[in-house]
């Protein structure tokens, strides 16, 4: 009887120890709010889809007035906000198709699904550039 009581006690302690550790919950949402340099205003939202996909939703209110050609603008995620270099995996330009409305330079809502985990975005910046010139950037904040 003592042997079974001791085993039950050990099992109870083991279960309490295991249950005290909570698994790492992935980040479900991140946001980048533009306007640091004052040239572009708007927000990009990053939503957790599954372990290898992130949905990006962007809405810009002003700032696309330099060129009326939407393909002139590049939307990328970068390590250094004022540097034009980027990682090709984080070039969002091709998926975030948008139309520029004149004369205010606002855009439609842009949506794209990308093959990277949302946790990879920590310490990165969203950047909008044109002809290797940074127009504006935003820190990506995890929620």
In short:
This protein has a single domain (about 30-140), classed as Superoxide dismutase, copper/zinc binding domain (Immunoglobulin-like).
Which features characterize this protein?
1 helix; 143 residues; two-stranded antiparallel ribbon; mainly beta; Immunoglobulin-like; seven-stranded antiparallel sheet; 9 strands
How would you sum up this structure, described in words?
The chain has 143 residues and is mainly beta. 13% of the residues lie in helices and 40% in strands. It contains one helix and nine strands, in the order αβββββββββ. It has one helix spanning 2-20; strands at 29-34, 41-50, 53-62, 73-78, 100-101, 106-107, 110-114, 125-130, 133-142. The strands form two sheets. A seven-stranded antiparallel β-sheet has the order 4-8-9-1-2-3-7, with no helix packed on it. A two-stranded antiparallel sheet has the order 5-6.
Within CATH, the superfamily carries the name Superoxide dismutase, copper/zinc binding domain
The total count of helices amounts to 1
Contiguous low-pLDDT stretches (5 residues minimum) are: none
Q: What is the CATH architecture descriptor?
A: Sandwich
Name the average pLDDT. Answer: 84
Rg measurement, Å = 22 Å
The dominant shape is elongated
User: How many strands appear in the DSSP assignment?
Assistant: 9
How are helices and strands ordered from N to C? HEEEEEEEEE
CATH class category label? Mainly Beta
Major β-sheet strand ordering: 4-8-9-1-2-3-7
How many domains make up the coordinates?
1
Largest sheet: 7 strands, antiparallel
Helix content class? 10-25%
Beta-strand residue percentage: 35-45%
Assembly type of the shown chains?
A: single chain
CATH topology: Immunoglobulin-like
């Amino acid at each position: 009887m003592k042997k079974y009581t001791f085993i039950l006690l050990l099992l109870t302690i083991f279960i309490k120890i295991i249950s005290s550790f909570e698994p790492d919950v992935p980040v479900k949402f991140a946001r980048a709010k533009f306007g640091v340099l004052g040239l572009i205003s708007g927000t990009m939202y990053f939503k957790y889809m599954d372990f290898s996909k992130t949905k990006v939703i962007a809405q810009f209110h002003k700032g696309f007035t330099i060129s009326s050609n939407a393909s002139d603008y590049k939307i990328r995620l970068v390590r250094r906000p004022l540097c034009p270099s980027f990682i090709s995996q984080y070039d969002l330009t091709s998926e975030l198709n948008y139309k520029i409305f004149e004369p205010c330079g606002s855009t439609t809502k842009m949506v794209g699904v990308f093959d990277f985990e949302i946790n990879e975005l920590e310490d990165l910046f969203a950047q909008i550039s044109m002809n290797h010139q940074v127009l504006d950037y935003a820190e990506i904040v995890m929620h």
